[in-house]
Amino acid sequence: MSTGTFFEDLRIGQSASIGKTISEADILMFTAVSLDTNPIHLDAEAAKQTVFGERIAHGMLSASLISALLGTRLPGPGSIYMRQSLRFVAPVKIGDTVKATVEVVSLNPEKKRATLKTICMVGDELVIEGEAYVQVPSRG
């Protein structure tokens, strides 16, 4: 198995980002995978009656970009996603570009685990914030 960053190479403040524009197809595919058929995501008429006034993307669709970062970039392949806290701050709409960023905030050398601040932004607006805890491959 290929590996991303080894624990010994992680540094406080190290970060990585990924961006994705959320499309109608993304919402439909996420609905199929997650089985979340909440009308706020799928039914324009029902969504008009909500506080948002229109359809919004599943919160976990945007949050899944965090998983993509942890598994492919930082720490990357070989890391094990153990825990995540999330606070959904604002909605993501069809056509919005979500930028997810993870940043190493603490390291536990004894257990080879890292805590990362996780955020998702649409432009200058915070849409999700949280913290991830991951097991990271070690050289030793």
Q: Per CATH, which architecture?
A: Roll
Number of separate strands: 5
Order of helices and strands: EHHHHEEEE
Intertermini distance: 16 Å
Shape: elongated
- Please outline the major beta sheet: 5 strands, antiparallel
Compute the number of helices.
4
Low-confidence segments, given as residue ranges, are: none
In the CATH scheme, the class would be: Alpha Beta
Report the sheet-strand fraction: 35-45%
CATH superfamily: Hotdog Thioesterase
How large, in whole angstroms, is the Cα Rg? 17 Å
Strand order of the largest sheet: 1-3-4-5-2
**CATH topology label:** Thiol Ester Dehydrase, Chain A
The overall average pLDDT, rounded, is 96
Structural class of the secondary elements? alpha+beta
Helical content, roughly?
10-25%
Number of folding domains? 1
Could you explain how this protein is built, in words?
This protein is an alpha+beta fold. The chain has a single domain, classed as Hotdog Thioesterase (Thiol Ester Dehydrase, Chain A, Roll), CATH 3.10.129. The protein is 24% helix and 35% strand. It has four helices and five strands, in the order E-H-H-H-H-E-E-E-E. The relative contact order is 0.25.
Short description:
The chain is an alpha+beta fold and 140 residues long. The chain is built from four helices and five strands, in the order E-H-H-H-H-E-E-E-E. A five-stranded antiparallel sheet has the order 1-3-4-5-2, with helices on one face.
